[in-house]
Amino acid sequence: MKKNRHNALLIGLIVSLHLFVIFPGFLAPYDYASQNREIPFAPPTRIHFFDSTGKFHLRPFVYAWKQDSGPDSGYEQDRSRAFAVRFLVSGAPYRVIGGWTSQLHLFGVDLPGQIFLFGTDDFGRDEFSRVLYGGRISVLAGLLGTSIALFAGSVAGVISGYYGRWIDSLVMRLVELFLALPWLYLLFAVRAVLPLRIRTTDAFLLLVGVIGIVGWARPARLIRGIVLSSRERNFVLAARAMGASDFHILRKHVLPQAYPIVLTMAAYLVPQFILAEVTLSFLGLGVGEPIPSWGNLLAELQNYSVLTSYWWMYLPATALVALFLIYHWASSALQEHTSVSA
Amino acid sequence: MRKAARRIIHGLLLLAGVSILSFALLDAAPGNFFDELRLNPQVSSSTVAALRRQYGMNSSMPVRYWRWLESVARGEFGYSLSYNRPVGELIWPRARNTLLLTTLATSLAWLIALPWGIFEAMSCGGWIDRVGGVMTAILLAIPELLFGLLLLLLATRTGWFPVGGMASIPSGQETASMRISDLALHLVLPVAGLVLGTAPILVRHVRSAMAQVLGAPFIDAARGQGIAPMRVVLRYALPVAANSLISLLGFSFGALLSMSLLIEVVLGWPGLGPLVLEAMLSRDIYVVIAAVMLSAVFLVVGNLLADVLLYFADPRIRTA
Amino acid sequence: MNLRVSAKAIGKMLAATSLWLAACAALQAQDLVVSKATLAQPGGQLVVSLRSEPKTLNPILSVDANSREVIGMMNADLVHINRDTQSTEPALAKAWKISRDGRTYTVYLRRGVKFSDGATFTADDVVFSFQLYLDEKLHSPQRDLLMVGDKPITVKKLDDYTVEFDLSKPYGPGERMFDGLAILPRHLLDVPYQQGRLAQVWSTTARPDELAGLGPFQLKEYVPGQRFVLERNPNYWKTDSSGVRLPYLSTLTFLFVPTEDAQVVKFQGGETQMLERVNADNFAVLRRNESTNGECLRDLGPGLEFIFLLFNLNPLDATKSPDIAAKQVWFRDLRFRQAISLAVDRKGMARLVYDGRATPIWGNVTPGDKLWLNSNLAHPERSIEQSRALLESAGFSWNANGDLLDTQKKPVSFTILVSSSNAQRSKMATIAQDDLKQLGMDVQVVPLEFRALVDRILNTKQYDAALMNLVNGDVDPTPEMNLWLSSGQTHLWDLGEAKPATPWEAELDRLMEAQMTATSFETRKKLYDQAQAIVAENLPFVFLLSPNILVGAQSTVGNFHPAILEPYGLWNADQLFISPAGSPLCK
């Protein structure tokens, strides 16, 4: 019973986290590209319930940041004007899906106030909004990359395992070849080689393709193993004796054996591929400005001054770690689930 | 014996395949080494063209591949365009530095992971297992990149550890022990980063291998006979689990040269990583190819090693 | 009073005088240079970081900056450009004469100068060195620096201490061309040269006894991947005004530190004593701790680097690259480029990307070049309204969403390439993108690996626009000729044109050729002023900023006089000294 509650919680977390990143427009108070050049690297806005006279307000409010007077350019709160935090406000328009745009945001403050939950970056852009939009890129890259790797790997594994002999040898040699190359080098090389698409969506898809290509080898080997073992099982032999076609056998008897493993692999691979995108973007080879991804958000930390002075720029890492933890949990749960039923 | 010979030939073919693949990939990458020179207004294009010809960059790929093979046979492993030296001279010192780092880190990681994994498996749902599980989950979720950055932050904030490099500038009067302690200080951060990145994975694998074995009936039988739990684990369970652990060891060995690239770059360790990164970005192709080949060699040797160890460790394979 | 001076006394005086005269003569026979720097005691060790390892110690082959820096410490040239005054001063050449027609240079060499291994320096070494530089089979990049009027200069020995150079045409920059050309030891390199092995010698693994130079330092030790250690050259030909032989430093160590941030950490920790160039963010961090750490941080103002937006104006085959060709219709319209130049927020870029430590520019000569800058050029203020007016006059219009449409009613959209390895230029491109959005343009910033970027710009020409930087090698305009000449190989916006594509490029060609062969500074300045005006008017590049040169040194480093020409802090390494701990020197 406890297991069921755990699982329900897990599924709920996964779904909601993915909703966050697929529909960031609603949760993010601002667009990811709107710059506020007067307040670069501002710390997270502080939320107050008590005003300067000590009075308690049920509705939280914030102050604006203004430049600290003095040689050291820090920020201090401008207590001259308070801006109330409101929920379900109308703000900058954003695209939800296809052509449907909306202006509804979960929260916001009255203009000209601004609320930066995660502070601002070097262009004064809201880091919280960028983390949400950035998650979309990174997570999508992970999901799509995993799909490509699993699909390619499955096809290769099935063909290799089912038809055997020289096809098997060839595919397995190719797998070994890809596994022998250190993945980071391979990532670079493939990224550098594939035709340079310059439009952003194209560049992103290219990135996803690269990640997927690098990762097809391990799933292929695993699937091949499963196909090999199930090929000799009694029910497959029986089906063949009854004259079932190869395709039918694959679809109805062999593949179902593979599904749980594939699912487990997926839960294991998605964080790996998100990490691949993060690494590429960190090294400057991912999506370009102004589109955020967790990788290029973290790339800011390569600067010594950012590394040591602006702690809120580490927050994308917490989003990343949280997501990985959830996937990890899901992967363990799936592993238990499949090993129990196997 | 025949099997060993087949494996070795297999490995050699794999290396050949890796070299061809690397050549092809690097060849297809846009830009070449001399492009930066062309951007310099003070260097004429005829000089650049002549340099290209001199280094044989205009020949077709098969010709260059053949020349590279000859160079490998001579022990030079190609020619670095940046450094104007045979790649071999360039790579060995760097590879040694990387191996120093990774062997230390991998040994440490195994030393930590093996007992921890065994304890987790023995505890099986007990508090050690659960706490350990949470810890490894968190550590696994944090990318190695982040470890590197956090360690860098630690070093700069506290000043306890030197940042970058392998040794401080010698004044010429250090004793051997002073030099060793200086080296050790420089090693702390990169080793810590690598251990934090690899130990959790090892712990998980050890735990799952041991847990599988510990669930087997013969273990119950041994326990039932009253044999002490530690003895059961070490003398009965571990040898059976050794099968998959040895393959894991083979993988660990195989990754010795390639696992540390990010950490070396972020923390400034003078190993193969920064050299290869720079070579990749400046299209100094023979350096990249040599580094990739070296990593592949380690991988092949690691697999062979695992096979050999398995042969001696697992009687079932011997008698098969 | 006995006025009769004894013969003995006279004899003694004569002896003393003649001894003194002989000593003077001996010193004079050595032709040493006397430096005017602050006096100090010899001794002391300086440690400096280098971004990456030098690739070679062979001056014939070296191109990268790190190799040149180390080579520069171990070798000397005939005439040297003083980085501080930016004019030439005698080095190994104690004087030179330029003939009336400007085509013959007679150079008088210093006498009594020895290489670091004790061999005597004569005209043979000079002739030999230039022979190597000019040898076509060696393909030295330095050869191109010695081409005047498409013909290489020739060198002739007149006697043991006089050399003559002949040029096919008079050369504007004059003796500046000798700066940085190391004079090599014939006695060590002649044999490898005759055997055809010159490219293999003097690599970074050369042993100290295989090298010899005329610079202030010589090689002591090389630890691969970690550091280069140089030690004092006891035969260096400069002394200070009290007769102490330079350099003061006993060792100069170059530490290889791959990232700038690690360099800053080492500097703050005292492991290195000089930071030769640091970016604005790190400078701010260092500034905050300056007083507690006893450091000397200097903002030297703009250097010779200029950052610009480049538009693809190459004539492309419209059938092969229809997208780019369509966009080129906009790029070719001068009003389009002018509108962009008026819309970008240079001040904002300087403030956000460089912490204010960069200077907006509207031409290729930065304010760091005080000698050649045309100060009459206009510096138009940023104005979105004016931009819009310009675009409108060029036939552009806006739709209901505010998107800019061209004369065919197609939306204006293009990409700007930047090198992924330079964070600052990527940021500038992002700001530009935001600025151009206010004009209704849809601009995307695409980071590319540097080599891939260069490949597109130089080879395939498949790009819309790019944000790049170039650094002038010298304040003199001639080294940049290939950029401005239509036929030049770095005529980036329109490569490979044998004939000028537009009238203004033809005029630019004429002016640049003329200034190269004019010999009086006033004539050249007038010509170059006109060239600058043409460039600023016709905007082949939209010039953005020139970053300031930021350097630092520990306060124990004496004679620290950084300059905006490379090497920023070490150009006077022979005069630097380390004061005893605790006595701050820089103010």
Supply the number of structural domains of chain B. 2
User: What is the beta-strand fraction of chain C?
Assistant: 15-25%
- How far the N terminus sits from the C terminus of chain B, by CA atoms, comes to 13 Å
Q: How much helix, percentage-wise, in residues of chain B?
A: over 70%
Q: In the CATH hierarchy, what is the architecture of the largest domain in chain B at level 2?
A: Orthogonal Bundle
Write down how many β-strands of chain C occur, each being a DSSP E stretch of 2 or more residues. 26
* Main β sheet profile of chain B: 2 strands, antiparallel
How far apart lie the N and C ends of chain C?
A: 57 Å
Tell me the radius of gyration of chain B: 24 Å
Q: Which fold does the CATH topology of the largest domain in chain B refer to?
A: MetI-like fold
Strand percent estimate of chain B: under 5%
Radius of gyration of chain C: 27 Å
Describe the structure.
- The complex is a heterotrimer of chains A (342), B (320) and C (587).
- Chain A is α+β, with helices and mostly antiparallel strands and 342 residues long.
- In chain A, 59% of the residues lie in helices and 14% in strands.
- Chain A has helices at residues 2-22, 24-27, 127-163, 165-180, 183-193, 200-214, 217-231, 234-241, 246-282, 294-299, 304-309, 315-341; strands at 48-50, 56-67, 75-97, 100-109.
- Chain A has a 4-stranded antiparallel sheet with strand order 1-2-3-4.
- In chain A, helix 3 (127-163) packs antiparallel against helix 4 and helix 3 (127-163) runs antiparallel to helix 9 (246-282).
- The longest helix of chain A has 37 residues, at 127-163.
- Chain B is mainly alpha-helical.
- Chain B has 2 domains: 2-87, no CATH class; 94-319, MetI-like (MetI-like fold), CATH 1.10.3720.10.
- Helix content of chain B is 77%, strand content 1%.
- Chain B is built from 14 helices and 2 strands, in the order H-H-H-H-E-E-H-H-H-H-H-H-H-H-H-H.
- Chain B has a two-stranded antiparallel ribbon.
- In chain B, strand 1 and strand 2 (85-86) form a beta hairpin.
- In chain B, helix 1 (2-28) runs antiparallel to helix 13 (285-313) and helix 6 (127-141) crosses helix 8.
- Chain B is globular.
- Chain C is of the alpha+beta class and 587 residues long.
- Chain C is 31% helix and 22% strand.
- Chain C contains 16 helices and 26 strands.
- In chain C, strands 15, 16, 17, 18, 21, 22, 23 and 24 form an 8-stranded mixed sheet that branches. In chain C, strands 2-14-12-11 form a 4-stranded mixed sheet, covered by helices on one side. Chain C has a 4-stranded antiparallel sheet with strand order 5-6-10-9, with helices on one face.
- In chain C, helix 3 runs parallel beside helix 4, helix 9 packs antiparallel against helix 11 (384-393) and helix 15 runs antiparallel to helix 16.
- The longest helix of chain C is centred in the N-terminal third of the chain and has 24 residues, at 7-30.
- Chain C is globular and about 110 Å long.
- The N and C termini of chain C lie far apart (57 Å).
- The model of chain C is unreliable at 24-29 (pLDDT under 50).
